[in-house]
Amino acid sequence: TLLSLCPVSNVVLRGVREMREMPIRTFLDRGVRFSINSDDPAYFGGYILENYCAVQEAFGLSVDEWRGIATGAVEGSWCSAARKEELVKEVEAVVARHRGLLATTTAA
């Protein structure tokens, strides 16, 4: 099971008063698999990047937490098993590149 979250529209529609009220941390702590999505972005003013940025700003997630969110979203998708495998490899490659960049800037 995969839960689809649209954080920006939840704030706009007043499902929560502010982003920090989204149950992101609870879901992560309890192992609930979810994806972060946009909901009618032209209307709510939040394309997918804005949703990801708003979640990061509110929760300060780690690289490993984002990796888990991205991997869980892929695994919970309707893609074929082969496509899921490709996408998970892409997620891992992005994480590895990011860690390499962090190591480079930390060492400098």
What features would you describe in this structure?
Its cofactor is Zn(2+). Keywords: Hydrolase, Metal-binding, Zinc. This is Adenosine deaminase. One of its GO terms (molecular function) is metal ion binding. The protein has helices at residues 7-12, 24-30, 41-44, 48-59, 63-75, 81-107, and strands at 3-5, 34-36. The longest helix is centred in the C-terminal third of the chain and has 27 residues, at 81-107. It is globular and about 40 Å long. The protein has two domains: 1-61, no CATH class; 62-108. The mean pLDDT is 92. Strands 1-2 form a two-stranded parallel sheet. The chain is built from six helices and two strands.
Q: Which residues sit in consecutive blocks of at least 5 with pLDDT less than 50?
A: none
What class, by secondary structure content?
mainly alpha
Distance between the termini: 43 Å
Strand residue content: 5-15%
As for the number of domains, it is: 2
For the sheet with most strands, the description reads:
2 strands, parallel
Q: Which strand order does the major sheet show?
A: 1-2
What is the helical fraction, as a range of percent? 55-70%
Task: State mean pLDDT (0 to 100 scale).
Answer: 92
The number of helical runs is 6
How does the overall form come out from the CA principal axes?
Answer: globular
Q: Give me the strand/helix succession.
A: EHHEHHHH
Write down the Rg.
15 Å
**Number of β-strand runs:** 2
